Amino acid sequence: MTEHSTSQRRICVVGSANIDLTFRTSRFPEPGETITGRSLHQGMGGKGANQAVVAARLGAQVSFVARVGNDSFGTQAIEAYQADGIDTSFIRRSENQPTGTAAILVDDHAENCIVVVAGANAELSSEDIVAASTVIESSNVLLCQLETPVEAATEAFRLARAANVLTVLTPAPAEHVTGELLNLCDVCVLNKTEIELLVDQSVNTEAEAVLAAELLRKRGVNRVALTLGSDGVVIQDEQGSMFIPATTVRAVDSTGAGDAFTGALAVSLASGLSLADAARRAGIVAAISVTRLGTQTSFPTVEEVADWNTKEAMQ
């Protein structure tokens, strides 16, 4: 396929906007235990915002449909998105709910555990989506996740499908997925935990990953990209399955790596690449992100990805 120009790569993201408070610790505490943290980092997060930021830094024209609180965190979030060139015209401010917040613990093995308070994210409504219908219908790709009400994502996917816009879903939390949403999904990007819940099939080997992806396609999804962390990605479409190995790096923080992959995948798909080629490029972006601390602060720009590729080619 021929890649589209940057001006044609229009991506709309519908989803969550959070403030992330990241605590570095040597290990996770046991129930009832208090341990001393090493550092605290405040940044921007939320799966929707993460994917929007990644796509914008990789050169796409991005619009973000979301809710934040009428508080200082909400102001900081909007200003940060605008600094990345994201269209924030469709971000509404909730009067009675705070901006969503996530507490993230990261240990010495770069593993993380997260507690999220939805706040204003829970108020994103179908009415908000209809108000943003013009930008959804004029996009090349629509990205949704489920940290906001599933009704909002479903309405967005209905509008996108009617306008022949490619729909990409991160089904997290997976328990909120509906049959209608899967039937409206062109590309489902998910991890091992999420697909195991959706298809009731364990994933411990590459063969089991392929089977799980096949089962998910039988539920209505057109194409699947199953991310397996440092083990790579399994993609499944009408032509069959393919395993794409991960780029080897020294990880320091895996927070947001899945969103880095998904946002980058969307940019490549909007550029006209195949799912396999898009997944390869997205894997590089995700690999770069885990070498850095934080969530959105870890996401590379298009120039940084180009520099990375140049250095890799020289080795």
| CATH domain class name | Alpha Beta
Distance between the termini: 29 Å
Quick one: CATH superfamily? Answer: Ribokinase
Number of helices: 11
Protein name: Ribokinase
Pathway: Carbohydrate metabolism; D-ribose degradation; D-ribose 5-phosphate from beta-D-ribopyranose: step 2/2
EC number: 2.7.1.15
Pfam families: PfkB (PF00294)
Q: How would you sum up this structure, described in words?
A:
The chain is α/β, with parallel strands linked by helices and 315 residues long. The chain has a single domain, classed as 3-Layer(aba) Sandwich (UDP-N-acetylmuramoyl-L-alanine:D-glutamate ligase), CATH 3.40.1190.20. 37% of the residues lie in helices and 23% in strands. The strands form 2 sheets. Strands 5-4-1-8-9-10-11-12-13 form a 9-stranded mixed β-sheet, with helices on both faces. The longest helix has 15 residues, at 275-289.
Overview features:
single chain; 315 residues; alpha/beta; UDP-N-acetylmuramoyl-L-alanine:D-glutamate ligase; 9-stranded mixed β-sheet; 4-stranded mixed β-sheet; 23% strand; globular; disordered N terminus
